[in-house]
Amino acid sequence: MIWPNTVQDRVKLGGDREILRTYPYRSACPSTVWADLVVGAERELFLAGYTNYFFWTQVPHFSATLRRRAEAGCRVRILLGDPDGEMTRQREVIEDVALSVSTRIRMTLGELARLGPVNGVEARYSDSEDAANHIGLSVFRFDEQALVTPHLARLVGHDSPLLHLKRHFDAGMFDRFTEHAEEIWERGAPA
Fold first, then answer.
1. Tens digits of per-residue pLDDT, 146-160?
2. Count of C-beta atoms within a 10 Å radius of residue 180
3. Are 165 and 19 in contact (CB under 8 A)?
4. CB atoms < 10 A from the CB of 67, how many?
5. Do 158 and 34 meet the contact criterion of CB atoms below 8 Å apart?
6. The pTM is what?
7. Is the pLDDT of residue 3 over 90?
8. Of residues 57, 51, 58, 77, the one with CA closest to residue 66
9. Are the C-beta atoms of 19 and 13 separated by less than 8 Å?
10. Spacing of C-alpha 110 from chain mean position
């Protein structure tokens, strides 16, 4: 090769192959990306954000889409923080915004209540011992792709960065993040 360093700087060769795209803010990720991933999920739709409320405002006809995904055999799971938990109260003080963390969780619970019971749709609260780990990292899985938000200091989720990942191999970034969410899910309690 004439310019091997130039090619290596542009072509993903290792673990970074799992990174499809990065966004400096979750809100910078186009709503079409979220909608396409939700609609395209066939086996696994796992929303492990602390509040998850924004799906109903960002993805058109989100409740109907959840129902259709579940009826088509997709496993749909929603992991939430406890709206009355100590970590939630602490985070509300830190964020100091009008649309509080507990309100955002209750918005999600209200939407799930309107959806009603659907075979294949499960919701859980993270255990109080996992709350700090859950509130600091949102993992949204759509089959072999994931959108991951590591939350920064005092910022609300939409102001934190976002990684768009696609699974390519065992024990890569995709697996590390989704296994973190699975661990919290396993210790959670029904919402």
1. 999 999 988 888 899
2. 17
3. yes
4. 18
5. no
6. 0.92
7. no
8. 77
9. no
10. 19
